Structure formats: structure tokens, C-alpha cells
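User: Please fill in residues for this 150-position structure.
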């Protein structure tokens, strides 16, 4: 038996739903949020800082005792340069026949006025006023509310 692995196949070792479940399991907070305000700052070296204020509209899992109606601060940085390097390494490995998992995707830039299912971790504070949260499930950190049924 001969098995041919192409570069495109080399990094599809895990089904998308399994990859998503592995990513979101890392999050200590599984929330439904309504984003009230977003500030985006382009920084040097292909970095983008995002700061958002959101109201918790639903709680599926919480380690910091969040409740519906709480306002949270979400802060994260997207580093496109690091992501591009990981994608380039994946392409080089695949060309050599090295099989592995794809590098995680970047979280989206959330938008004010939108509702998301959010998978976050508490970064600082006690979960009450002034606490800071950040995305922890890569490209699955912020999903449309309909994703919760998949």
C-alpha cells in the first residue's frame, strides 16, 4: 500500500470540530457577550491591539463568577508577523512531508454592536469591576451566537 500525502493534506490531521473543541476547552469563561465599544490601535511590526467593553448576556461556564449584566473589559493583541511565520514554517514542513497540526488562527477583531459567543480567560483582577479578560481559543475565541449549537 502506498500513501501519498500532499502539503494540503499534511495539516488536516484533525477534523475542524475536534480542533474547535480542543481550542475552546482551554477557556475558563464561556460567555455570550454584547460588545458596547471597541478601540483598535495599529502598532509596529504588524501588531494590532484591541480593547473592548462588553456586557455579559449569557454564561455557560465561568471561573470568575461572572453573571448576566456584568460589564467586562477584553484586551488582546493580534501579531500578524508571528502568524505569518508559523504559516510559512507549516508550508516548509509540508513540502518536506512533515505532518502536523495547523498553527492556530488569529481571533477576529470584534465589533461594537455585535453579539458573540466568547471563550476567554481572566488575565487580571478578581472578575469584578476592572478585571481584564483575553481570548484564549485562537480563531474560535469569538463566534456568532449560532455557533453554540454546533
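Assistant: Residues filled in for all 150 positions:
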Amino acid at each position: 500500500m502506498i500513501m501519498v500525502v500532499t502539503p494540503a493534506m499534511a495539516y488536516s490531521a484533525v477534523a475542524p470540530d475536534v480542533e474547535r473543541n480542543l481550542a475552546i476547552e482551554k477557556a475558563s469563561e464561556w460567555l455570550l457577550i454584547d460588545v458596547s465599544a471597541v478601540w483598535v490601535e495599529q502598532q509596529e511590526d504588524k501588531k494590532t491591539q484591541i480593547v473592548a467593553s462588553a456586557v455579559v448576556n449569557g454564561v455557560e461556564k465561568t471561573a470568575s463568577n461572572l453573571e448576566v449584566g456584568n460589564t467586562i473589559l477584553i484586551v488582546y493583541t493580534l501579531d500578524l508577523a508571528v502568524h505569518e511565520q508559523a504559516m510559512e514554517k507549516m508550508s516548509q514542513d509540508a513540502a518536506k512531508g512533515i505532518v502536523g497540526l495547523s498553527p492556530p488562527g488569529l481571533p477576529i477583531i470584534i465589533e461594537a454592536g455585535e453579539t458573540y459567543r466568547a471563550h476567554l480567560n481572566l488575565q487580571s483582577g478578581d472578575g469584578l469591576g476592572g478585571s481584564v479578560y483575553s481570548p484564549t481559543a485562537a480563531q474560535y475565541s469569538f463566534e456568532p451566537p449560532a455557533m453554540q449549537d454546533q
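For context: Strands lie at 29-42, 47-61, 71-79, 115-124, 132-135, 142-143.
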